[in-house]
Structure formats: structure tokens, C-alpha cells
Amino acid sequence: MTKTILAIVPCYNEATSLPSLLGSLKQLRIPGYQLSIAVINDASADATASVAKAAGVTVLDLPVNLGIGGAMQTGFRYAQQQGFDFALQVDGDGQHPPSEIPKLLARQEETNANLVIGSRFLLHEGFQSSFMRRLGIQYFHWLNRIFTGNAIYDATSGFRLLDKKAIDKAAMVYPDEYPEPESLVLFARSGFKIAETAVVMQARTGGTSSISSAGSIYYLIKVTIAMFFSFIRHY
């Protein structure tokens, strides 16, 4: 029986990188799976919406900028309403090559995990981010291990596959800002199985990061507090 996947592409001013990304996604063929694509246009100021519509994929236009958490939750709610078996987060900046998607699916089949994370740091191949960001990612690895007991080496990775149970949870509640590390606590506290698999990422092909050098300290403090409150929250 063919399983359905919705590739959710959250976008804020990603018109430059979208044509190549969407072209690669549309060409991807995975035996046993049917892939659909939804671009979440997070009130972009550039031609993101028109570029995505020209590519012939589903486009959900947000009237105001909600940030990555709100954009992803919009995609999860759409996936839930449409009855997809899996939801796949693929960043719109081109860092997540569609050719790596079968690795996430293979890991889900192997482990039956509710959430599978594509990791840069299991084999250390491809784009590895800056030294300072790698330090921050190691910090979140340590923090996540304290809160959940899980050893997730790429806690900030947005290259993720969710099954139906995880889609239902994320559609109901999902962190609104810098959601990746905090959502690991949310899913673990909800009793979900989390797995990680090695993938090769690449440097962004367009757009700018939502985390500036000056904002890194705020990011660390904000996400640390958010992970703590997710840990003590009753789900």
C-alpha cells in the first residue's frame, strides 16, 4: 500500500532558492511512497509565493509573519486535515537536499519512530555550520539529554520526518519560536519515539538565517527557558 508524504517547505523570502529545491522535490521518486509538496509562505516580501505557485505546488499564504514555528504548525494542520501518513520538514533555503529524504524514511521503517531527525553530526559529512553554532548545538545535545534522556546530536536540525501521531501532536501544540530543540522535549514528554539518521546537508543557496550573530545569546537563553518549561509542562 502506497504511503503518502507531505513535504512542508516553510519559506520567508526564499524566492532565490525555491526553483531548484521544488524542482528536485518534484523529480524525487521513492518506491512505496507518494510525495506531495506544500510551501508555507510566511508573509514573504519577495516573490516566494509567485515562484511556488509557478512550480505547481500547494501554497499556503500566511497573512502575517508567524515565524518558523507558526509556519510549520500551519503545515502540520494541513497534513492532518488531508490525512497524510507522514509530514516532512524541508527548509526553503536549500540546506536539505531532497536526495537525502529516503534516508529518513528508511530509518523510520527500521525503528518505527514517531519522529526521525536528519543529522549532520553522525558521520560529519557535508555542510557542518560554523564553529560557534556547533558549540551551541552541542549545548542543546547536552540539555536535551538532561531533560529527556535522548542522545540527539543535531537538536537544531529542521530536516525531520513525522508520522501520524507526531503530526496530530504538532498540529495541536508546537513551539512558536526556534522550535526544533524545544519540540524534542515536547515529543519526548508525550511518549514519542525519536530517532536520528545521518544525512548530508549543504550550505543555504539563498535567504538569510533567522539567527544573527548578535541574536545568538538571546537564542540560547530563550530556547533554554522554553525547553525547561516544556519539560515541566503536562502534556
Spatial extent as radius of gyration: 16 Å
Number of strands: 7
Summed up, the helix count is 8
User: What is the architecture at the second tier of CATH?
Assistant: Alpha-Beta Complex
The low-pLDDT segments are none
What order do the strands of the largest sheet run in, or round the barrel if closed?
A: 3-2-1-4-6-5-7
Structural class given helices, strands, pairing? alpha/beta
At CATH level 3, the topology is Spore Coat Polysaccharide Biosynthesis Protein SpsA, Chain A
Number of domains: 1
Q: How much helicity do the residues have? A: 40-55%
H and E string:
EHEHEHEHEHEHHEH
Terminal CA distance: 33 Å
For CATH, the homologous superfamily is named as: Spore Coat Polysaccharide Biosynthesis Protein SpsA, Chain A
What is the overall shape?
Answer: globular
Top CATH class: Alpha Beta
Summarize the main sheet.
7 strands, mixed
What does this structure look like?
The protein has helices at 18-27, 48-54, 67-82, 101-111, 131-148, 164-172, 179-189, 216-232, and strands spanning 3-11, 33-41, 58-61, 86-89, 115-119, 160-162, 194-198. It is an alpha/beta fold and 235 residues long. The protein has a single domain, classed as Spore Coat Polysaccharide Biosynthesis Protein SpsA, Chain A (Alpha-Beta Complex). Strand 1, helix 1 (18-27) and strand 2 (33-41) form a beta-alpha-beta unit. Helix 5 (131-148) runs parallel beside helix 8 (216-232). The longest helix is centred in the middle third of the chain and has 18 residues, at 131-148. It is globular. It starts with a strand and ends with a helix. The mean pLDDT is 92.
